[in-house]
Design goal:
Blueprint (H helix, E strand, L loop, with lengths): L1 H21 L8 H4 L17 E5 L8 E5 L5 E4 L3 H28 L3 H4 L4 H9 L2 H13 L2 H19 L8 H6 L8 H16 L4 H11 L1 H8 L48 E7 L10 E9 L1 E2 L3 E8 L2 E8 L7 E4 L2 E7 L5 E5 L9 E4 L2 E4 L1 E7 L7 E7 L9 E2 L11 E5 L7 H10 L3 H7 L8 E7 L4 E6 L14 E2 L18 E3 L5 E4 L21 H12 L5 H8 L5 H12 L8 H12 L10 H17 L14 H10 L17 H20 L8 H4 L2 E5 L8 E4 L15 E10 L6 E5 L17 H6 L3 E3 L14 E5 L1
Parallel strand pairs: 1-28, 3-7, 6-23, 11-20
Antiparallel strand pairs: 2-3, 2-28, 4-5, 4-22, 5-25, 7-8, 8-9, 9-10, 10-18, 11-17, 12-13, 14-15, 15-16, 18-19, 19-21, 23-24, 25-26, 26-27
Length: about 800
């Protein structure tokens, strides 16, 4: 009897386990399929390295294609025509990064709830209400009107889908198994959506609401002085010697400026404020080889897999090498046989918010220049895993979407905040045509012409060519604005606040072959104040740009090694200017033994944010504490407000040390700058002790900088944690936490043969079970670069090129 009971319980337990493993719980997938020994996650482990030749018979190709993989798993595609080139690019990108491709598109268009359930619904609604789907539709219209790009994105999609069709369930990338999902068909529309997502990352910062609140709280004098001014240390992208030889367009300013209301309800998603980049280029007069050398490092959030994918694309009429975005054909940043180009973000204001006056509660009409105009509606349908689809109605004015929208069609129409968005992302565009042309450009003229169709996100592109020319071009479309237009929330009922026309491309900032022999861009102001147009004021502080320019002025006989060193330059101009003031004000204070030792260390510090030093950690904590003490009493309000930048605050400290702004008006005493410096020093040491312990070895900047590469889909356990780094957001080596140089590149524009060097933090494969998943991380961390194998002809199978895929 006991045996029968035991057998019965065993069967019951086994049955329960089988039910458990086949049943999803919320967003957790059924674990049986995940742990299946063949079709589950075990199937994603690479059991052996692929070598030799693989033959594929694929529908859709016009002629045979050969793809050679080098020892770093970089594909070098040899095709006979553009159609097959981009078909193959879509195929190999999906082969390595399929999950990441789909993840980015779902994040861009607000489609994550379909995978992850109702917890992501508000995120999805936010993306739809910002008009991301609408903007991608507008971009598709522009692309489909262009015969070349229309063909390119269709060919790319066909290649992605050819790979998807080749998969069985056991071949799905690991993340699909974790989510109990399967890949969906790739559409040409996805490429448009991905490019709009990059525009959101780089041109989606809006400070209108918080600047409006600050203006209402402090007044215009404060805003002009501390928010709209530029630091005395700024060294702009375009040399100050540049003369603008055009007659600028004029625009009428309103007779009196609109004063918007306080707003504490709209809390907009903002891209990382550290998104930016460095690029620089020198002409042959400053290099050892007598030809231009170009450098670029693009600063974005760093994950595994990386945002970038390395590739070479060759046909009989073109040959280009560089990095591309997963989901977008062509090379985005790179070089060909004749030119190299690198990208930095501008930060120009192309996102304006408007207060809307509706006629009545129905919200069917809104006021504009004394007339009541009709409101249009757009219904967004969001699929939600495990629940019914959600229908969200968005109201549109001629400005753009009203951000807070109708929630679920059957409900009464209630809008929390009546603000509409005008954004360059919503304009019809065709940025891919720019990259298609850049991939084939032969000289500066071609480079300049390529950016004529580029709209967003506006970029400062540098150029170096075998023709000997160097240049920087601000590519992008900018609304023609009167000074400070769009700085605050605008009057949506007055047409003088509308966008009426755009700055002509020929009048965008640019420089060609300056006398000084070099150009650089680090997201600072593009020009000095002689440039006649208002581009906004959300530009990076001066430190990186000034450091690069100061170094390039001194450098002669430049080599690739010199530029590698400059890319890893950890010097802090912020510390160089500020720390002596801090030390001067604390030298007569009674200090403990530990405090005195730390001060002595800071006195000996060379202002380099090196990972093995504690001084960068102490200085940064000291500065952040001091900054908070200077401004927090004035900013003690429940309204979100815009704070002064660090370089403007530095100017205040250096130029007005007796300023009343250093007094804490919430206390009866009158605090001075020395008081704040002393208090903030001691508090900063307490903060470091609380976070990292009493052993100052744990205060080393490499630990405090806290660089972790998380998984792109935020899946625990699939990232690369605890990377020991130097640098900082004010250093040329702009590593700050998990944000920093996502692709470093140097190109020698030797007329006898262009040579490239580069690295990104990650690896070519998106499969966590692959040895190439994160194999570049240590090379990136140490500042080394790979020599990029820019092939002119097909290689032989060897250790350098262990695999070829032949497509027919």
């Amino acid at each position: 009897m006991a045996k029968k009971v035991s057998l019965f319980l065993s069967v019951l337990l086994l049955t329960a386990i089988l039910i458990l493993l086949s049943t999803p719980f919320g967003s957790v997938p059924p674990l049986g399929s995940f742990f299946h020994p063949i079709e589950g996650f075990w199937g994603n482990a690479e059991k052996r390295e692929l070598t030799g030749s693989i033959d594929l018979n694929l529908e859709g190709l016009q002629e045979p294609v050969e793809i050679y993989y080098d020892e770093r798993s970089v594909p070098h595609i040899f095709a006979q025509n553009d159609h097959d080139l981009y078909f193959a690019q879509g195929y190999v990108t999906a082969r390595d990064r399929l999950f990441q491709m789909e993840l980015q598109i779902r994040a861009a268009g607000g489609m994550l709830s379909e995978w992850l359930g109702p917890d992501l619904l508000e995120y999805d609604k936010n993306q739809r209400r910002l008009g991301m789907m609408y903007g991608a539709e507008q971009a598709m219209e522009g692309m489909l009107k262009d015969e070349i790009i229309s063909s390119v994105i269709r060919s790319y999609s066909d290649g992605v889908n050819a790979y998807i069709k080749s998969l069985s369930e056991k071949d799905y990338p690991l993340e699909y198994k974790i989510l109990n999902a399967e890949p969906v068909e790739w559409k040409p529309f996805n490429s448009a959506l991905l490019l709009k997502y990059m525009s959101q990352m780089l041109a989606g910062r809006s400070e209108d609401v918080i600047t409006s609140n600050t203006l209402a709280h402090f007044g215009e004098e404060f805003v002009n002085r501390f928010l709209s001014s530029r630091s005395s240390f700024v060294d702009p992208i375009i040399p100050n010697s540049k003369e603008w030889d055009f007659n600028p367009l004029q625009i009428d300013k309103p007779d009196s400026l609109y004063t918007p209301r306080y707003n504490d309800k709209i809390q907009l998603w903002q891209p990382d404020r550290l998104n930016g980049s460095n690029n620089w280029v020198v002409d042959g007069s400053k290099t050892a080889g007598g030809y231009p050398i170009l450098s670029n490092d693009m600063h974005l959030n760093m994950t595994v897999p990386s945002i970038w994918y390395e590739i070479q694309l060759q046909t009989p009429t073109s040959n280009v090498y560089g990095v591309t975005l997963q989901g977008a054909p062509t090379v985005i940043v790179g070089f060909n046989e004749n030119i190299a180009w690198g990208s930095t973000n501008t930060g120009a204001d192309v996102m304006d918010w408007y207060e809307i006056t509706f006629r009545d509660e129905s919200k069917n009409e809104y006021l504009h220049d004394g007339e009541w105009l009709p409101v249009n509606e757009r219904v967004e349908t969001i699929e939600v895993k495990g629940e019914e689809a959600v229908h969200d109605t968005i109201l549109f004015t001629h400005h753009g979407p009203v951000y807070e929208s109708v929630r679920d069609i059957p409900l009464s129409r209630q809008i929390q905040n009546e603000m509409a968005l005008r954004w360059m992302v919503h304009e019809p565009s065709n940025e891919l045509l720019t990259f298609y042309k850049l991939n084939r450009a032969k000289n500066y003229k071609d480079f300049k012409e390529a950016f004529r169709t580029f709209q967003a996100p506006a970029q400062n592109m540098n150029y170096g060519g075998t023709d000997g020319n160097i240049a920087v071009q601000t590519g992008g479309q900018f609304p023609l604005k009167w000074k400070y237009q769009g700085r605050t929330v605008s009057d949506g009922s007055n047409s003088r606040y509308d966008w009426h026309e755009f700055i002509p491309y020929e009048q965008n900032p640019f420089s060609l072959n300056p006398e000084r022999g070099f150009l650089s861009a680090s997201n600072q102001y593009p020009t000095d104040e002689s440039y006649p147009y208002y581009l906004g004021e959300s530009f990076a502080p001066y430190e990186r740009g000034k450091r690069i320019n100061d170094q390039l002025r001194k450098m002669e006989d430049i080599t690739v090694e010199d530029f590698k060193d400059l890319q890893m330059d950890n010097f802090s101009y912020h510390a160089f200017h500020l720390l002596p003031i801090l030390l001067e004000n604390i030298q007569h204070v009674d200090l403990s033994v530990q405090e005195q030792q730390i001060i002595e260390n800071l006195q000996d510090w060379n202002y380099w944010n090196d990972g093995d030093k504690i001084e960068p950690s102490v200085f940064k904590e000291w500065w952040e504490t001091l900054f908070h003490k200077i401004w927090s009493d004035e900013y003690d309000t429940h309204y979100p407000m815009r704070w002064p930048e660090r370089d403007i605050t530095l100017d205040l400290i250096l130029e007005e040390p007796e300023s009343s702004w250093f007094d804490n008006h919430q206390t009866p005493e009158r605090e001075t700058l020395p008081d704040l410096i002393i208090d903030s020093f001691r508090q900063s040491l307490d903060n470091l002790t609380e976070q990292y312990g009493t052993d100052t070895e744990n205060w080393k900047w490499g630990f405090v900088n806290d660089t972790d590469f998380g998984h792109a889909g935020q899946i625990p356990g699939l990232g690369v944690p605890d990377i020991f780094t130097g640098g900082g957001d004010e250093s040329v080596n702009a590593v700050r936490g998990s944000h920093g140089p996502s692709w470093r590149m140097i190109v020698e524009l030797d007329p006898d043969g262009v040579r490239g060097y580069g690295v990104y933090p990650g690896g070519q494969s998106g499969n966590p079970g692959s040895k190439t998943y994160s194999e570049f991380v240590e090379t990136w961390r140490t500042g080394e670069l790979f020599e990029l194998q820019f092939l002119r002809e097909k290689p032989e199978i060897s250790e350098r090129f262990p695999l070829v895929i032949k497509m027919e």
